[in-house]
Amino acid sequence: MLRALSEMLQVDCLRSMPEIKEFGPKWRQFEIEHATRLDWFQTSEWCLNWLAHHADRRISPRILVLREGDRVMAVLPLMVRADRFGLRVLRILGDPHSQYAGLLCRNGTLSPVETHAMRKALHSMADADAAVINLVPADSPLAAILSDNSVIPSLNNVSSVLDLSSFRSSADYAASLCRARRKSRNRRRKRLAEAGAVEFRISRPHDTDYARKVERSMALKQAWLKRTGRVSAGLSMNNHPQFLTSLRDGGVLFELSLLGQPVALELGFLRNRHFYSYLGSFDWRWRDLSPGKAHMDFIIDWLIDNGMVAYDFLAHPSSYKESWSDTTVPLNSHVLELTLRGSIYARCWINSTRPALKRALEAIPGDYRAGLQIVMKQDMTFVA
């Protein structure tokens, strides 16, 4: 019976942009019918726009489509990137911008036979030396495809999420806070109001000033990264503001303004009542008023009152994310050795040198890290 079921399945690998675009409407319909948790970065909206703005001659898309006859069963967006020394590495499509690695599948699950078919297709990638798939939720169907044996614990991560599902209104949320938290929340709002007129706005991609606000948010973030000695290879890539403004479905930008000028901005994406907080920034000149924290209070209220069930701060834990969230999602990094060169790369760089270098960089004080930015920008996608 299992063999018969397996023979009914086939996995197509879409490689060219014409065939990927042709598949686009079916991809779109599939993701609408089978929306699940944490799948925004595998939608056609994200992936096709990422290819349009960030793919270059080093990037070759590989979209695995599991079918049962004409029926789409799963979509796994991948890409092969030509790295240094002629290595070809299979990654999740959108790396380093995609914050969750996963796949779209019917009702969010794969049967054992479907999992086997996808695993076989993944291991059959003849034009890649290794697969490096980061930020895979531990309970994702993709984790089952990759298997526990491929996990590299030293590269594992975690995302932070504030669960909003139990609150009927923003007033319920405010009432649930401890006394100290409520006082801090009220104090921040009062101090901002004393400084001038405060306004909280929501912009969507169809608004005429949306692109300008996205660019402003990016500029504020870049200034903060430079000031604090951090580097984000993803945010420094060319065309990234244009890519973000091209995302018409689900994009939302929250703005907190003081005296008519933005003091905090947050860009994210809404899908299936889940808010993915992708890019938060604030004007450093107003830091004494904690505009970023005040802004998050407004955002949480809006999300609850508009029926959202999760405020997702995404990967790369930090103290501020931990202080605002109440749930974590374990994220694993998987490495598959597909050729001899891939084995050397995985064992010498991924498993040993890279984690050690990451720990060393994180131990350097911020002022000194700032002086290393030029060096780190070359290939340190894990520093942000």
Q: Indicate the CATH topology of the largest domain.
A: Aminopeptidase
- Low-pLDDT regions: 372-384
Q: Using DSSP, what is the number of strands?
A: 13
CATH class of the largest domain: Alpha Beta
From the alpha-carbon coordinates, what is the Rg to the nearest angstrom? 22 Å
Shape: globular
Could you give a short account of the major beta sheet? Answer: 13 strands, mixed
What is the percentage of strand-forming residues? 25-35%
Quickly count the domains.
2
SSE run: HEHHEEEEHEHEHHEHHEEEHEHEHHH
Structural class: alpha+beta
Helical residues, percent: 40-55%
**Count of individual helical segments:** 14
CATH homology group of the largest domain: Gcn5-related N-acetyltransferase (GNAT)
CATH architecture of the largest domain: 3-Layer(aba) Sandwich
The chain-level mean pLDDT equals 88
Distance between termini?
Answer: 49 Å
What does this structure look like?
The protein is an alpha+beta fold. It folds into two domains: 2-158 and 331-365, Gcn5-related N-acetyltransferase (GNAT) (Aminopeptidase, 3-Layer(aba) Sandwich); 166-308, Aminopeptidase. 41% of the residues lie in helices and 26% in strands. It is built from 14 helices and 13 strands. Strands 1, 2, 3, 4, 5, 6, 7, 8, 9, 10, 11, 12 and 13 form a 13-stranded mixed beta sheet that branches. The N and C termini lie far apart (49 Å).
